[in-house]
Amino acid sequence: MSMKEEQIQRALQIISQRRITAKQQNEERMQEIETRIPAISEINMQLARTSMEVMRIIRDGGDTRPKIEALQKQNLQAHQMVQKLLTQNGYPADYLEIHYTCEKCQDTGYCRTKFCTCLTSLAAKLATEELNHSAQFELSSFSTFSLKYYSNQRTAAGGSCYAAMERVFLFCQEYANQFTSESPSILMFGKTGLGKTHLSLAIANVVLQKGYSVLYDSAINFLRQVEKEHFGRGDGNTDTLDLLLSCDLLIIDDLGTEFHTQFYQSMVYNIINTRMNRKKPTIISTNLDYDGISRQYDERVASRLFTNYTFWQFVGTDVRLLKKQEEQQKG
Question: What digits encode the pLDDT tens for the residues 164-179?
């Protein structure tokens, strides 16, 4: 995944601080143990003298192998004794080792000459946070979604709106709680004001708390940003399309409200198709039904949405209107 220089530099600063913190914490543990278990302090002094002896042997030259092997054996026995003393005194055997956030690169950000995955993941997370800065995640949660606004209403087929929306609500709640990077994609469709955005954001809240990367915005905002960057009018610090294709969960709100251009059409197909091929979950909400999607997009888009997505129809009366009427009655 290609990351812009700004995010890479910010990620390197954070990882560098992690390394400094890990070493400071290790020094504090060393001081604690040397005070509480003096025998370990003596062994550590012996290990320091052994290191100096190895340097002297190498400096003097000659056949150094037997002497170094003997010292290595002595060092191994000393380390084993330290671990034994630690466990006997109720500490983990690795208590005096440096505990890095990423053991693979030891919090340097590099594995040999390449970026470590911890660096690229963190850079992607930073870029994702920048794109999500305007999303009102905190305003929508499962606890603030009320099914009472769907009571005493019937669907076009004569069913209970309450029962239908209760099924949608419980599915979304379970989806968020059980989310993995290979969860299925969801298509939410129905008229405006029926809770599609609310439940999308509620899912995003839970998934973000699990540590996954989530991107949320309207289709038009995402596509405008991709268009700016594609034609060289962006700020140069973000590769939005790259993030849309690679984040753990992509949530596209209001699909179908964007302008009908060839570029937007191809981008919608590219995003849906690429994420489907990569088995990455996407949640799409739209006011369009099957016929509307089929009219606005080519057959490839409609086919992928209705054959590869779990789709849920939102029913009822515009909740925002019902809430407004409720407030007016109170007043």
Answer: 999 999 999 999 999 9
